[in-house]
C-alpha cells in the first residue's frame, strides 16, 4: 500500500511571527513555540494545545477560502478523526470567543516584531513623552478609525472618539471631550484640531430623528442633542430632500457646528486668533472611499457682517 502523501500547507497561511525576538525572554519562548507550530504543523509529536491552536487558525483560513479543501480522505483514519475532533473543539472555542483573543494575541506579537522592535528608538522616545501635531475627534463607529484611514502612527495624533464626533460648547460644562481638548491644546500644545464626520453615521441619524424638546432617558439622545443646531440648520436648508439625504447633509453640518463650538473655549479661540492653532473639518465617506478636508477661516468668519461661518483650503481626496 502506498504511503499517503503529506498534506502540504504553506507556512505563509499562518500569520504569527516566525523568528524569535532578541530582546525579550517571554517573546522568545512565545515565538519559539509559534515557530515549532509552523514547522511541524502536521507532525505526529504536536502537543494537544499546539494542535488546537494550529487547527484554530487553519479552520479559520479554510472558512475564508472556500476553494481550498483538505485531502483528508488520503490520510490515515486516525488523523482524519483527529481533524474532525479538533474542528469540533475549534467550534466550541469560537463560540466562547477564545479565537478572537488568539487573533489579537498574534496581531499584537506581529505589531511588536514588525513595528515596535524595528523602530525601537522611536518607541523608546515615545515612552518619555508625546508631542503630537494633531488632536483628532472622530466618531466611535468601528468603520472610521482615524489611524487606519489617515495613517496616524503612535505619537502623531491625540485621538478622542465619541458618538457622532461632536464637540459640545464651552457652556455645557465638563465632558470627556473637552477634558481631552484641554489636555491636548494646553498641555500637549497640538497645532491642529481635526473633527472628522463620516457617512452613514448612526449618531447623526439619532439626532435627525429627535423631536424638539423631546425628553429622553437615553444616554445616546441626551448626548447627540449637542448637535441640535446642526439639525435645525439642515432642516431649514435641505427640507426638500429625503430623510437619508438630510442625514448626509447633517453629517457635514454637525462637523461645522463642532468647529464653531471649539471657538467657544477661550483658550482655543485665543490660540486660533494668534495663528498658533488651526481647526479643521473632515468627512470620510466609506461608501465610495473619499475624504473631504477643510479648514476654519477664523478671520473670514469674524469679519463676516452676517456672522457666517467661513472655511478655506477645502480639498477632496479620492
Ligand atoms: Zn458616527
TrEMBL record:
GO molecular-function term, one example from the UniProt record: carbonate dehydratase activity
Keyword Cell division in record: no
Keyword Lyase: yes
GO BP annotations, alphabetical order: carbon utilization
Enzyme Commission number(s) of this protein: 4.2.1.1
Requisite cofactors: Zn(2+)
CDD domains the UniProt entry points to: beta_CA_cladeB (cd00884)
Amino-acid positions noted as binding Zn(2+) in the UniProt annotation, renumbered to this chain: 139, 141, 198, 201
InterPro entries associated with the record: Beta_CA_cladeB, Carbonic_anhydrase, Carbonic_anhydrase_CS, Carbonic_anhydrase_sf
Key words of the record: Lyase, Metal-binding, S-nitrosylation, Zinc
Reaction equation(s) it catalyzes: hydrogencarbonate + H(+) = CO2 + H2O
Cofactor note: Binds 1 zinc ion per subunit.
PROSITE patterns: PROK_CO2_ANHYDRASE_1
Enzyme class, UniProt record, top EC level: lyase
Domain of life: Eukaryota
Family: Belongs to the beta-class carbonic anhydrase family.
Function of the molecule: Reversible hydration of carbon dioxide.
The name this protein goes by in its record: Carbonic anhydrase
Organism: Quillaja saponaria (Soap bark tree)
Lineage: Eukaryota, Viridiplantae, Streptophyta, Embryophyta, Tracheophyta
Amino acid at each position: 500500500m502506498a504511503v499517503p502523501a503529506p498534506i502540504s500547507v504553506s507556512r505563509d497561511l499562518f500569520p504569527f511571527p516566525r523568528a524569535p525576538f532578541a530582546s525579550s525572554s517571554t517573546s522568545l519562548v512565545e515565538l519559539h513555540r509559534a515557530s515549532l507550530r509552523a514547522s511541524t504543523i502536521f507532525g505526529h509529536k504536536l502537543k494537544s494545545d499546539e494542535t488546537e491552536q494550529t487547527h484554530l487558525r487553519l479552520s479559520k483560513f479554510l472558512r475564508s477560502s472556500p476553494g481550498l479543501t483538505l485531502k483528508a480522505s488520503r490520510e490515515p483514519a486516525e488523523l482524519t478523526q483527529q481533524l474532525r475532533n479538533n474542528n469540533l473543539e475549534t467550534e466550541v472555542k469560537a463560540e466562547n470567543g477564545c479565537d478572537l483573543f488568539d487573533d489579537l494575541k498574534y496581531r499584537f506579537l506581529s505589531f511588536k516584531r514588525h513595528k515596535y522592535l524595528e523602530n525601537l528608538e522611536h518607541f523608546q522616545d515615545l515612552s518619555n513623552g508625546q508631542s503630537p501635531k494633531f488632536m483628532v475627534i472622530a466618531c466611535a463607529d468601528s468603520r472610521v478609525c482615524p489611524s487606519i484611514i489617515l495613517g496616524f502612527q503612535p505619537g502623531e495624533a491625540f485621538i478622542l472618539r465619541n458618538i457622532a464626533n461632536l464637540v459640545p460648547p464651552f457652556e455645557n460644562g465638563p465632558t470627556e471631550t473637552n477634558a481631552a481638548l484641554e489636555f491636548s491644546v494646553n498641555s500637549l500644545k497640538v497645532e491642529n484640531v481635526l473633527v472628522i464626520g463620516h457617512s452613514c453615521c448612526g449618531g447623526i441619524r439619532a439626532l435627525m430623528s429627535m423631536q424638539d424638546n423631546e425628553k429622553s432617558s437615553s444616554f445616546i439622545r441626551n448626548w447627540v442633542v449637542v448637535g441640535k443646531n446642526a439639525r435645525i440648520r439642515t432642516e431649514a436648508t435641505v427640507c426638500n430632500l429625503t430623510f437619508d439625504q438630510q442625514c448626509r447633509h447633517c453629517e457635514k453640518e454637525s462637523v461645522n457646528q463642532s468647529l464653531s463650538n471649539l471657538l467657544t473655549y477661550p483658550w482655543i479661540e485665543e490660540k486660533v486668533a494668534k495663528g498658533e492653532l488651526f481647526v479643521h473639518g473632515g468627512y470620510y465617506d466609506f461608501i465610495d472611499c473619499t475624504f473631504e478636508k477643510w479648514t476654519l477661516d477664523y478671520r473670514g468668519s469674524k469679519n463676516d457682517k452676517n456672522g457666517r461661518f467661513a472655511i478655506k483650503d477645502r480639498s477632496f481626496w479620492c
